[in-house]
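**Backbone geometry record:**
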Amino acid sequence: MNFLNVENKTFLIFGVANKKSVAWAIAKTLESEGAKILFSVRSESRKESLKKLLGDREVYICDVECSDQIENLAKKVQEKHPKIDGIVHSIAFANYSEGLKPFHETLKKDFLQATAISSFSLVEIAKYFKSLLSKDGSVVSIGISSTYVTAENYGYMAPIKASLEASTRYLAKSFSSDTQVRFNTVNAGPLKTSASAGIPGYLESYLYAEKLTLRKSALKTQEVADTAVYLLSSRSSGINGQGIVVNAGMDFNYFDNEVVRLSMRPEPKNPSL
């Protein structure tokens, strides 16, 4: 038995978009430890685009914006897998088609759609998969480390990610009445992924975050994946309802000497003095 004890266990992963995805890094790491991975993607076209990456692995289609598709997914998975040992929720969507707006100008339809996909989908996944999860299963979601920071270029997604983290705590409590299933989030700092590339002004924020890390080196996708895998394993049995921050110390290094120096500019001289 290896340290993580995930060999021959089965995990369902939502959210693989391409080889740069956190979800894919989690899947590959679990597979390297001997686990079996099932994948859920949002559409037939996404499944087709991942054909080369996923090969002959077991892939299901489910648009989590639709409750009936989540319910049907649970039924299809159960036909082949009466029990699964964990679920990864690595899903986020925001409609920035009209560009980034001040938060108070957020369109209601955009906010509600993003909430349904990025946050409430976790609640419905938990609901429909409850009977499939092993007694001591683990559900892990990918959040962000800056829900208490007003990152302007992240728009309305920050409060939605905050709701994901809060929902995780309530699910942990709700499931505790008759199971030992755990719910946690991995709250990651800025990463270099395809999804992040769609956020307006993200590159500048990514480079700024790298300056704030204690090691002066950007967070790696694999580091986030490793934390998620640990939370999925029985070795983290004492962790439940938590948001684990993974950002290389970025969140308490705002007054780093280098960052302060670079942010300051010489004041223009007043010729009248």
